[in-house]
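User: Please run a holo structure prediction.
Assistant: Happy to. Please share the sequence and the ligand.
User: Here you go; the ligand is adenosine monophosphate.
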Amino acid sequence: MLQFSELGLPAVITRALEEVGYTTPTEVQAQSIPAALKGADLLVSAQTGSGKTAAFLLPALAKLSERSTGTGSGPRILVLTPTRELAQQIEKNAQTYASGMRGMRTACLVGGQPFGFQTRALSRPVDVVVATPGRLMDHMRQGRIDYSRLEMLVLDEADRMLDMGFIEDIETIVKATPATRQTLLFSATLDGNVGRLARELTNNPERIEIARQESGGNIAEHLLYADDMRHKERLLDAILKDSNFDQAVVFTATKISTEEIADKLSDMGYAAACLHGDMPQSWRNRTLNDLRRGRVRVLVATDVAARGIDVPTITHVVNFDLPKQAEDYVHRIGRTGRAGRDGTAITLADTREFHKVRRIEQYLKRTLPEGVIEGLEPTRRIQKTTGGPRRPGSGGAGNGQRRNSGGGYGGNKSYGGGNGGNSSYGNKRQGGQGGPRGNGGGSYDRRGSGSRD
Ligand code: AMP
């Protein structure tokens, strides 16, 4: 099996990797590191959890093992990333991988934190700057960033940065950097706007596409339909009560609902906390620390706030609300099953959200196994008002038959722990009327009338 020592990285870095227990490179690392070390620009489609952070940091840090030929004391490496948490994680990883490199200096420039500390860091020589585009622009306007010796620009999660409206900032930042720089762009997708941006920013790039994981791998996924909000709350309670969870992240659609649900869970006796972008950064940091230390067992978060959370003891992800964008589903469930462990991801969907579930499944190119919790089955019919083509073999127009909510998870009590049973999630019974999608049974109402039982 390929070893890090074969990729051409300086020994000082491979030694640090050994210390953190990385033995073999992941696929994205095996492909990206040698290409980046040759000096090529890269366009890499890889997802979170693939090891992409080290895929760009390691060749970036390799540059620092040689003296700068440039003048000035500004950053030699600039990493742009969409969120504060990701930026902090990347800076931490850089310090770990460069632990054997004396005198490497980093600065993390993110919003929501005082300028003073960041400004001081920029007044000294700095090697690596990790930044979110908005705050970096603030520093640039004040004339605090000297790009004269910049060697490498990394855009991490470029698709996400575009989604968040950073395109103009990114273009301004890139224009300020030397044309001689090496550019590495990482993104879940290289299509559409990202592709256009990539063409603008890179020079004869090598394109590396890491296949999206076709299945959740070590993450067991489940889909539960709910009649309404109250029903979802009861499902969440049942999930937390009956699963042997160590720590869980619950995703909601809005900042306010993170607070409401965290409050309810606290009232019910869970060590719960919320995390969203309107909280002061110091408070967010404290919450994340509490999560890492195990003081918080259930974190209720929005998508953006939870990006980049890397806590191996998170055993469960619950999508209390569906993600707005299909790719966010992948980011969300990637909070569990970290560091080679198993995880469970349970998605709750309103019976009126069938079309949103379909969109996620189309993106994933797989169906989410649908189940029920005994005694908490949905009573409303799933509204299949989606106009899109059905999956091949999924059959004709159903006529509003009721879903079969029998079957549960293999008959008996379905959730883990405490009941002496073998307590795993089962899938809803396949076949016959009301089976899951794709069984040819035509069991879904396609009239689009939205009528309910
Ligand atoms: P990322 O996709 O960069 O968020 O990385 C996902 C996780 O994999 C992080 O917890 C990393 O610390 C870990 N990781 C990255 N590369 C390796 C490797 N080669 N061997 C083992 N773990 C790794």
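Residues 22, 25-26, 29, 48-54, 310, 338-339 surround adenosine monophosphate (CB under 6 Å).
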